[in-house]
Design a protein that fits this description.
Elements (H helix, E strand, L loop, with lengths): L1 H12 L4 E2 L2 H6 L6 H9 L8 E3 L4 H14 L3 E4 L16 E4 L6 E5 L4 E5 L4 H9 L3 E2 L12 H7 L6 H4 L2 H4 E7 L5 E4 L12 H4 L8 E8 L1 E2 L3 E9 L2 H13 L6 E5 L1 H7 L6 E9 L1 H18 L2 E2 L3 H9 L6 H5 L3 E11 H16 L4 E8 L2 E2 L2 E11 L6 H18 L18 H20 L15
Parallel strand pairs: 2-4, 3-4
Antiparallel strand pairs: 1-2, 5-6, 6-10, 7-11, 8-9, 8-10, 12-14, 12-15, 13-14, 13-17, 16-19, 17-19, 18-19
Helix pairs in contact: 1-4, 15-16
């Protein structure tokens, strides 16, 4: 099957779109998932795909999926490889569908505030295109410069300015996709519809398991007229949670609201004595001024101290700077960041439980957390763990143990096991805890109906039946 499917793709698409050279195959074995890098580091790398297909248009995607379906060949959609939960992991018999060549700006509509892109369009380039028209997408994941708009949708992503602008599901207007049998569909029409279940959500968070996203139309905003920043310091995480809840439930929505525990606050700024809270206010000048003043009044009423605003400015300047995993693995340090969410009455319990569990790991260098997305009914937590070992053979077990401790602590207190990175492979076996047996069974039935041959990204997201 390996040679025959590659030959069939060559015949149908041309050799320029179907790569089988070792360098290309090796570069597309996996995404940015730490465990894939651990395996590379310790000398147990996974296999490359059979071939890498770079479609130029929707017709190429349709042809690829029809041939793959007929041959029962696995297909793994690839955006820009910034995923961190193992959504991309090549199998020895798989076709890697690299969407990078489908990167056009299809249209920018300043009247309806819409912009349409090929799914492979780089996120930062998409934002720059609309910014030239005085507009913004408002979606700023840390990976914005190394992720694609299709990847945002496929992973149900969230951006740093989500409190005001929403998560990707709040920004998506419509989605173009090719189903596993090669059928092309357009999901979504108009600013809102009451036309049965919202079929866009079949692709939102689907992680390449139900089809291939080929295009995305996003609902834009006008660029912010003004911006102000606020910074505060509270004695502990609970006090900060209470402050955040009061601000949001009072009706204010600063686009950025971030809270750091003591360890992460000191790492953020050496002047920090306890827990820092950072806010960015932006939008119409009148609203920005009113919001900033109102938040300051709430802080004063609750006895929350102000902190230097330059902490926020420094975060804005450096928020997307991330060191490579290899820099840590070379020093024997296994680490990751894990995001969860919960309602207000559960979040502190999850924080206490997970951090204590992480810090109990032998060799733990760091077990900490911050929040980065807040809602009327709760917020997320973004845990970080780092463990040092002088035994490379133990790195994978240490990594999985760190994840297990966070997942189990979150589950014990009724939180959601993923906020915005998705499920991939690292959370896959925990999905039953999130959805329940009936929920997972429903997802499996949807998968079977759309992908009867099971070709789409097998091993990701959906547990085996």
């Amino acid at each position: 099957m390996t040679q025959s499917i590659a030959q069939a793709l060559w015949a149908a698409l041309g050799e320029a779109k179907v790569r089988t050279d070792a360098e290309t195959l090796n570069a597309r074995r996996h995404d940015y998932w730490v465990l894939s890098h651990v395996r590379d580091h310790v000398g147990t790398p996974g296999p490359p795909p059979v071939c890498v297909v770079r479609p130029a248009d929707v017709a190429d995607v349709q042809t690829t999926l029809r041939l793959a379906s007929a041959a029962a060949a696995p297909v793994i959609p690839f955006g820009q490889g910034s995923g961190v939960v193992g959504g991309v992991l090549a199998g020895a018999d798989s076709i890697l569908l690299d969407m990078g060549a489908m990167n056009a700006v299809r249209s920018i509509d300043p009247v309806n505030l819409l912009a349409a892109f090929d799914a492979g369009k780089n996120g930062l380039e998409a934002e720059q295109a609309v910014a030239a028209e005085g507009l913004t997408i408002g979606h700023w994941p840390q990976s914005v410069a190394v992720s694609s708009v299709g990847g945002w949708v496929a992973t149900r992503a969230s951006g740093q300015f989500s409190t005001a602008y929403g998560n990707i599901e709040d920004i998506v207007h419509s989605i173009d996709a090719v189903l596993p049998d090669g059928e092309f569909v357009v999901l979504g029409k108009g600013p809102r519809a009451s036309s049965g279940p919202d079929l866009r959500h079949l692709m939102l968070g689907s992680e390449g398991t139900l089809g291939v996203i080929t295009g995305v139309t996003l609902s834009l905003r006008r660029a912010a007229e003004a911006r102000l920043v606020s910074a505060f310091e509270v004695a502990d995480m609970r006090a900060g949670f209470d402050f955040q809840r009061e601000v949001i439930q009072s009706g204010w929505r600063p686009p950025v609201v971030r809270q750091y525990d003591g360890r992460e606050s000191r790492r953020l700024d050496s002047r920090a004595q306890a827990c820092l809270i950072l806010m960015v206010h932006e939008g119409p000048a009148t609203l920005v001024g009113a919001e900033s003043a109102a938040v300051a009044q709430i802080a004063a009423r609750m006895g929350v101290a102000k902190a230097p605003g330059d902490i926020v400015e420094a975060w804005l300047d450096h928020r997307n700077t991330v060191p490579t995993w290899d820099a840590f693995l070379g020093r024997g340090i296994v680490l990751d960041t894990v995001e969860v969410s919960a309602d207000w009455d559960r979040i502190a319990l999850i924080y206490d439980d997970a951090v204590a569990s992480l810090q109990a790991i032998p060799g733990c260098l760091a077990g900490s957390a911050h929040s980065s997305h807040v809602y009327r009914s709760g917020l997320n937590l973004y845990f970080t763990f780092a463990v040092q070992t002088d035994e490379p053979g133990r790195m994978e077990a240490i990594y999985l143990d760190g994840w297990r401790r966070i997942m189990e602590a979150t589950d014990r207190h009724g939180g959601s096991l993923s906020h915005h990175h998705g499920i991939g492979r690292v959370r896959r076996e925990y999905l039953t805890r999130e959805l329940g047996l009936a929920g997972v069974s429903l997802l499996q039935k949807v998968k079977k109906a759309l992908d009867p041959h099971g070709i789409m990204n097998p091993g990701a997201l959906i547990p085996d039946a």
